[in-house]
Amino acid sequence: MDAEDRERKLAETRFAADLRSQFEALGERAPQPRRRRRWVVIAVAAGVAVAGLLGTVALAGGFDPDSTQLPEPPLPAKSVYPMNASGLTYGPDKPLVEEPDLVAVLATNGKRGYCLKTDLDESKQPPKTPEEAVASNEAGLRGYTIPVYESDGVTQIGVFQLGGPGTTMFYGTADGSKVTKTADADGNIITTTVAPDGTTNIETKALDGTITTKTLTAAEAARLKKTPSPTPTPSHEPDKPSAWLLERMSSLARDAGDASATAQWELQWRYYLKRIEGENAPESPYQQWTTVWLVIMHGDFAGGVWRYWLLDPDSLNVISQGQSSRPFDTSSHNLQPMPGPITLGEE
Amino acid sequence: MGEMELRRDEELLAASGDRPVHFVALYDRTLPGLLGYFVRRTLDAQVAADLAAETLAEAYASRGRFRDRGEGSASAWLYTIARRQFGRYLRRLRVEDAARRRLGMERLQLGPEDTERIEALIDFEHIGRQVSAAFGELHIDQREALRLRVIEGKSYREIPAGLGCGEDVVRARVSRGLKRLAAQLDG
Question: Are B108 and A15 in contact (CB < 8 Å)?
Fold first, then answer.
C-alpha cells in the first residue's frame, strides 16, 4: 500500500467520520462568519483620516490591508522582562518563555552580568555546511567564551564560557555505528566510533589539525573493555588538576592576591553547599543537587589566608566563594580527602 | 459527479462563508493531507488528530477572511494555519482547543484502529535517518540533555549529575533542543 492509498484509508476512519459530523452540524446551526467586507465599510465610514493612515502604512510596506494572512499571536514573553535604555530586555532566561535580549549569566570572573542573546544564539545556530558542523562541534567540545555585559548591553565586565572539557557528544550514524566525541585537557578531540560488528576506531585530532587513528578489532575492543584500568584514564597526573582547572585556579589565586598560593580541588555532588553558604547564599539557579568543583586555597590573601571557591563544572563560572583566617572545617560535609595541595605559579 | 466535486478548493472555501456545507466538501479533501502533515512531525497519532481538528476548526471560524488568489491559495492558507498550530504546540507542548471550544466541538479520542491507520503514514525508516541527521546538528549541550532525558529516560533530577549544570538549565536545553529538532525536521 503506497502513501496515497494510506491517506485515502484515513477518510474511512471513525475519527474522520466523527469530525466530519461535527462540521456538518456546525453548518446547520452556525451563524454566518463575520465578513471582512463589513470592516471595509466601517473603515470607509470612519473617514479620510483612517483611510489616509492605512494608506500611509501600506505604502511604507508595514501592512497589507488586503492580506489573507492571519495575524501572528502576540508574544507575551517580552513583558516579563525589564527593558534598558536601549530598548533591550534583560533578565534570567525563563524556560518555555521567549528569551530576553540580554540573558543573565555569571561571568568566569564571578561577576553577574548579561550575554547578548544573539551571541548565545550564534552558538546554537545549525551549521550550514559539513565543515561548519565539524568546526562547531569541536569548538563546543574545547569550549569558547562570549562577552558578558552590564544590563546596558554595552559595558563589558567579563566573559562567559560555553562547553569545554568534560563535555561529551554521542550520536549514531546511518550505518548503525555509535560515535562518542570528547576533548581532553590539551584540547585534543577524541572520536571513538564503534561499528555494528564491534570494530572500534579511535581518532585523535590535535589543536594543529594533526590526526592520528587507531583501529581495534571487535575482539581487541572487548578485551580492552573487560580489563578496565582501576581508575579512569587520567588526562593529567593524578596529583595535579587537569590543565583547564589549573589555569582557572591560577587565575583565581592571582585575582585574590597570591599567585603562588597552595590549592586543593575536588568535584563534589551536593545540594549546592547551602550548609557552607548559610544565610548569605546568593540567589542562584544552582540551589539543588548538582556537581560543583570545590577549590580551597591557602595563601597571602586580603581578608584571610584561606579561601574557597565553588565552580560550575560546565562553565567554570564562580558560583560561590568565601574566606577565613582559619582552615575550613570540611569534616561535617563528608568530603573525601582532596587531591593536592599543589603550589600554583610553579612550572 | 456533483457540483462540489467540480469546484476548486479555493471556490469551496470562498463559498463556505455563505454555505458552510461547502466547508465539509473541503474537509473531505484536506483531512488526510493534514493528518499526514502532523503525524510525520509529531510521530503521535492522537496529537496529529487533535492538531488537524483544531486547524480545521480555526479555518472554519476564519473562513470569512479567505480571499481566492488563484490555484493553491486555499491550500497555502490552510497550511499557514496548520504551521502556526504546530508552532504553538511546540512552544507549549500541548494542542490548543480554543477554536473547537468556541465552536462547541468535542475533542475526539482515537481508537486503536484509527491510531494504526494514522501511524501508517509515518515512514519510520526515513524519519530515523532524518532524526539522526538533525540530532547531529544540534548544539552539543542540547544534544546531551536530549540524550539523557529522551533517549535514556532519566528524570530532570538525575540529569544534572551527568551534565554538571542546574536542573533549570537542563529543562531549558531539553525544551530548546526539542524545538530545534522539530524545526529542523519540519524544515
Answer: yes
